[in-house]
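Ring-1,2-phenylacetyl-CoA epoxidase subunit PaaE
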Amino acid sequence: MEQQIYKGKLTQFHWLKIAKKAELTKNTFSLEFEIPENLQENFKFEAGQFVSVKFQAHGKDVINDYSMTSAPYEKKICLGIKVNSSEGATAQLFKNYNEGDEILVSEPNGRFTMVSKPSEFRTIVAFAAGIGITPILSHFKNILHNEPRTRLFLFFGNKNSEELIYRDMLDNLARKCGERLQIFYFFSQEKTADQFFYGRLDDRKLNLIINQILHLDDTDEESTIWDAVDEVLICGKGEMIKTLANACYHHGIPKKNIHFELFEEYNDDIYPLEKEFPLIENVEVEFRMLGKEYHTELPDNKEKILQQLLVQNFQVPYSCKSGICGSCECILEEGEVELLENEYLTEKEEAHGHILACMSIAKTKKIKLNFDLI
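Predicted structure tokens:
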């Protein structure tokens, strides 16, 4: 039995049985789902993706997104989940659902993904904080399995060693693939023997990492390891992502090679606005959403379209407001906009008129949008 559920977009959910449940730390746990033979195709996924889980909490239906720690070659769906509050919905998921129970799980989604390049020599650096390790773990397992020439560096921040999730799994990967994987743990609220590993992962720490860890390159005496970095993965809270993404960019990594995933709503831009636009006042906006037509007027184009529609109390779908999650994806049917940043849409989708309302500035007096994507 399956259900189509609206969560910004119509999403396909299926009933899956919980095969394994394990408490990892005092505030994190894992779930593994049994995928029946008839749903194997539906639950194929790429490293870095997530699923949505629909469950009951305090008598209400809740839909939360959780990243997978499993890699595609493992052919199973494993989630790492953090309980932020003893009264929150996720605490109810941990308390009320056990092995053998069935629960609604969406088909895999998300674009915190990379193209696999098994024949190339690549260097990939990842930064994770707390539960942000989950999609990074999926990526690293997948890369180590499929890309024999790729080397990986992980910089993993936590408050203290007690909250360090998946340490055994990470250490085992490092022992098994020591020549290709190096892992460095940082603690913000626990003193370390080496002061270098004390503190948050931020721009200052990145400078130290580049100069003291990613400096000498045994494969090329003319350059540093940082010079050879092909891709950067960042997963954590918004401020961490913003700080590290900008620091990586200013240290020479192109924006298109910096990939990030948010674990909470974030309302700020990741990169600073670098363009100025002619002022347009009284912008007429028509849009279609859930089969209904709406019409409104924005005072001007000083702010992005989504943010202005939300101020007017329209229930437009969104999650991050930072161009990452894709919840506010829509089709521009009339008018022009400037898409400031885009970590979600493909070139083909942009060519077909798809935009992200949270990252779009109106450039014409009238625009027409379709959030139903049809």
